[in-house]
Amino acid sequence: MSTCLLVISAPGGVLSSAQAQEASAARIVRFATDDWPPFVSRKLPADGMSAAMVSTVFERLGYQVKYEYFPWKRTMQFGLSSPRYAGFMAVWRTPEREKLCHFSVPIGNTLTVLAYLKEDGPPGASLQELGRLRIGTVAGYSNGEQFDAMAARGELSTEEGLNDATNLKKLLIRRYRVIVIERHVLQHLLMGSEFSRAERDRIAFVDTAFKERPVHVCFKRDAEGALQQKRFNEAAREVDMARLERDYWKRLDQALASAPAAP
Questions:
Q1: Cis-peptide, bond into residue 90, ω within 30° of zero
Q2: Using omega within 30 degrees of 0 as the cis cutoff, is the peptide bond preceding 83 cis?
Q3: pTM value?
Q4: How many helices (H) and strands (E) does the chain have?
Q5: Distance (Å, rounded) from C-alpha 33 to C-alpha 110?
Q6: What is the DSSP letter of 36?
Q7: Which residue pairs, CB below 8 angstroms and at least 24 apart, start in 219-222?
Q8: Which of 225, 233, 223, 221 is CA-nearest to residue 61?
Q9: How many CB atoms lie within 10 A of CB 261?
Q10: Averaged in consecutive runs of 10 residues, what is the pLDDT profile of the chain (263 residues)?
């Protein structure tokens, strides 16, 4: 049984010091996750915007959340198979993943964009206009039903990279003509220390090729996962999730604006 469902009790209702420590440790729920700033990241306050929302909900249930970071494919593997984890996050909902997950209510909204170099000009406003351009994607990511289907049929020329930061670097050296990346993730990466102001000024993006999509917690698709999902979703109804999201973006934008620019 996962630690997130343990109920701690003691004879007479009194816990010894050792029992109290054990009880405290048992009130922890763990999720596997990929470092995907600003939604989930060990480098950000509260482990990122989506993590802040999840932690707030679990606090209402009396639990502390621990986020443990892996590359995305291992995140899915560990989140679904390891008894250490209640699941994984943050994840887009797809028909294939419906077979693997009990999905939480949304823990953030995303918009995927096509990033390109300004000097090369826009690649097109829709997926159909991309033709045979080399497109960088991240291994294991779903980029929406239309994109994924077109890629599977060979209508798009895609190449998988390790993560968004690596793909962005490959775009800057023209390994890719365009990369698929979430808008907030792109903006956060470009404002970070890995990329200079000159590199940031070279990047533009098209935001008309994809629809906005929420991300979720994926609880394991078993009886325990269903119960965890139910408890989480019920507690989330008592939290103004939209306000949490707005407030986090506002604070993050203020922090980025006051940070020294990379040379």
A1: yes
A2: no
A3: 0.79
A4: 10, 11
A5: 17
A6: B
A7: 219/86, 219/87, 219/101, 219/102, 219/103, 219/104, 220/79, 220/80, 220/86, 220/87, 220/101, 220/102, 221/99, 221/100, 221/101, 221/102
A8: 233
A9: 10
A10: 33 39 66 95 93 96 96 94 96 93 96 97 92 92 92 94 94 97 93 91 95 96 96 94 86 70 57
